[in-house]
């Protein structure tokens, strides 16, 4: 595989049924969700992650804990109201690490993706609920890595251990801000050049002229992801000094060619969309 950069139609959506959903509950009442969709008929699975109180909340008057966790049930108690309970398939409490969240949420979707199934994972919720931290992580040690960089590590690890196949991976990075499409892999003065949303008869919604770059290893793919994160629009809010004000869609496309069958070769293609949405407020 050689390093190539191409501009063409990149699918940003799928008409597939829901596969799996992760909801991330942030006290006192903030909720963000990570939803996983794939082109299978499996049922929706919902998990909840409870984040600890952040420093600003801990030093503010009037901040009250409104929920507690028991097993896979969350109990919410608002002032002057009866306690309500909500059951989920999985609940991740405040002690859950980034690695634990990835294992519980992304293991099955990654298995589906490398087997040829289209998958979409997106985080959504109010500002300060932890969408970007969960999806992309933060700087520092490997422990801070979010779902997206960990997914790239898993995909390339799979490719290395399956030498009977030939793999081609391409990535793209799209920003949607104020209903404007922006290619985060182009120069800033050319990022909005000729991008348009079109309907493909077989693939559904696609972005015409979005740059798609073939990548050779996880470092190259992660580097593109980091540059896309740095280029997106952010702004300060009351809840978050560096709040994401735009939607980021990072797409990994995988083509596999197997040589072990009697007919010669078997070709499989799949797409993984990793989406960090702007605050819902």
List keywords for this structure.
single chain, 281 residues, alpha+beta, 12-stranded mixed beta sheet, 5 helices, disordered N terminus
Could you give a short description of this structure?
By secondary structure, this protein is α+β, with helices and mostly antiparallel strands.
Mind explaining what this structure looks like?
The radius of gyration is 20 Å and the shape is globular. The strands form 3 sheets. Strands 1, 2, 3, 4, 8, 9, 10, 11, 12, 13, 16 and 17 form a 12-stranded mixed beta sheet that branches. Strands 5-6-7 form a 3-stranded antiparallel beta sheet, with no helix packed on it. It is built from 5 helices and 17 strands. It has about 280 residues and is of the alpha+beta class. Helix 2 (about 100-115) packs across helix 4 and helix 4 runs antiparallel to helix 5 (about 220-230). A hairpin with a 3-residue loop joins strand 2 (about 20-25) and strand 3.
């Amino acid at each position: 595989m050689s390093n190539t950069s191409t501009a063409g139609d990149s699918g940003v959506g799928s008409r597939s049924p829901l596969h799996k959903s992760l909801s991330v509950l942030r006290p006192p009442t903030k909720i963000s969700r990570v939803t996983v969709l794939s082109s299978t008929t499996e049922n929706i699975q919902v998990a909840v992650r409870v984040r600890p109180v952040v420093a600003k909340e801990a030093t503010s008057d009037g901040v009250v804990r409104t929920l507690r966790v028991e097993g896979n049930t969350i109990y919410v108690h608002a002032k002057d109201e009866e306690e309500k309970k909500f059951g989920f398939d999985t609940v991740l409490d405040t002690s859950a690490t980034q690695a634990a969240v990835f294992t519980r949420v992304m293991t099955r979707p990654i298995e589906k993706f490398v087997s040829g199934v289209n998958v979409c994972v997106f985080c959504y919720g109010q500002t300060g609920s932890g969408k970007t931290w969960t999806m992309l992580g933060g700087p520092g040690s490997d422990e801070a890595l979010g779902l997206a960089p960990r997914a790239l590590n898993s995909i390339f690890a799979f490719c290395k251990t399956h030498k009977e196949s030939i793999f081609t991976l391409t990535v793209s990075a799209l920003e949607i801000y104020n209903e404007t499409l922006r290619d985060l892999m182009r120069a800033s003065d050319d990022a909005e050049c000729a991008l348009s949303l079109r309907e493909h008869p077989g693939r559904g919604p696609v972005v015409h002229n979005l740059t798609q770059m073939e990548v050779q290893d996880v470092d190259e793919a992660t580097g593109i992801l980091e540059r896309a994160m740095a280029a997106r629009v952010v702004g300060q809010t009351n809840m978050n000094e560096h709040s994401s004000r735009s939607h980021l869609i990072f797409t990994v496309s995988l083509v596999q060619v197997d040589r072990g069958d009697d007919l010669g070769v078997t070709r499989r293609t799949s797409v993984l969309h990793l989406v960090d949405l702007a605050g819902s407020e």
